Amino acid sequence: MYKEPIFLKPVFKDRIWGGTKLREEFGYDIPTETTGECWGISAHSHGPSEVINGPLKGKTLDQVWDKHRELFADQEGEDFPLLVKILDAKTDLSVQVHPDDSYAREVEGEAFGKTECWYVINCEPGAELVYGHHANSKLQFEQMVAENRWDELLRKVSIKPGDFVYVPNGTIHAIGAGTMILETQQSSDVTYRVYDYDRRDDAGNPRELHIEKSIEVAMIPHVDADFEPVLSGNEDLRMKKLVRENYFTVYHWNLAGSVSKIENPAYLLVSVLDGEGELKVEGETSSSFKKGDHFILPSTIKNFAMNGNARFIVSHPTI
């Protein structure tokens, strides 16, 4: 039986709004000076992560999902459900919105829509997000878009390091300049741009917008998501459940010592935000981890121990 964490090699994405902080903050070997995204745990066809340890070394996560479903609590479904990223927004991201599952399947042929959430790793003083809008009806939304009344339409929210933002499908949103986040999302790459600050691509052309589809899928009027973080654990491992919803459950863990037994509820997706330490599986094999590592604890591991000083974002599908 498989008794070790599955460490993954990230996939990097060049973005017009990206920068170099993924290298500066996490030591990643990024491919360009405008690298915006690190896909740390991904089985999506646009960038599957590769296993870098153990018997599955060299396999991509989509291949492991297809051939070794016992590692994922025998969860049903053709596609691995989640995707974990770190984003470096040197400049503002486009204002965008994502569809639900039904719309994504029917219109785009994607397995999933996109509900996501963000943990703010770091941001510059005064950083903001776009989260929602001020239109009261679809007609008013359409009029404000047509008249380029973006300052009136878009709702901006101040942020600081450690903030958490839940972004259900249909939410108008944008990550602001000077922000680094960890994003946990459904495994989807469907994005509709509403507004892009009149930016142009490398060829000098205006970037494509998707106004009609955005209006079709947007939540109008906007309603803030209702969720309440839950604290548990002890001084050695403080666990904060950030959100539990239909697609995923996400936690922030703060390890400051030694914990002899942690239960694995299904299979866990783990990203190390800071620090280092050691993980021991059921009193047997040991694995070290450090800042910037991404790994999965498969469902064949029923419990594990940890020691060290580190912070993590941990998630699992809500099954």
UniProtKB/TrEMBL annotation:
Presence of keyword Lipoprotein: no
Question: What GO molecular function annotations does the UniProt record carry, in alphabetical order?
Answer: mannose-6-phosphate isomerase activity
Cofactor(s) this protein cannot do without: Zn(2+)
Q: A Pfam family in this protein?
A: PMI_typeI_cat
Q: Where is the Phosphomannose isomerase type I catalytic domain?
A: 7-105
The domain of life is Bacteria
Q: Which reaction does it catalyse?
A: D-mannose 6-phosphate = D-fructose 6-phosphate
- What InterPro entries does the annotation carry? Carb_Metab_Reg_Kinase/Isom, Man6P_Isoase-1, Man6P_isomerase_Firm_short, MPI_cupin_dom, PMI_typeI_cat, RmlC-like_jellyroll, RmlC_Cupin_sf
**Where does the signal sequence lie?**
none
* Keyword terms: Isomerase, Metal-binding, Zinc
Residues in domain Mannose-6-phosphate isomerase cupin? 240-317
CDD domains referenced in this protein's UniProt entry, alphabetically? cupin_PMI_type_I_N_bac
Which family would the database say this protein is a member of? Answer: Belongs to the mannose-6-phosphate isomerase type 1 family.
Question: NCBIfam families recorded for this chain?
Answer: manA
Under what name is this protein listed? Answer: Mannose-6-phosphate isomerase
Q: Which organism is it from?
A: Fictibacillus barbaricus
List the taxonomic lineage.
Bacteria, Bacillati, Bacillota, Bacilli, Bacillales
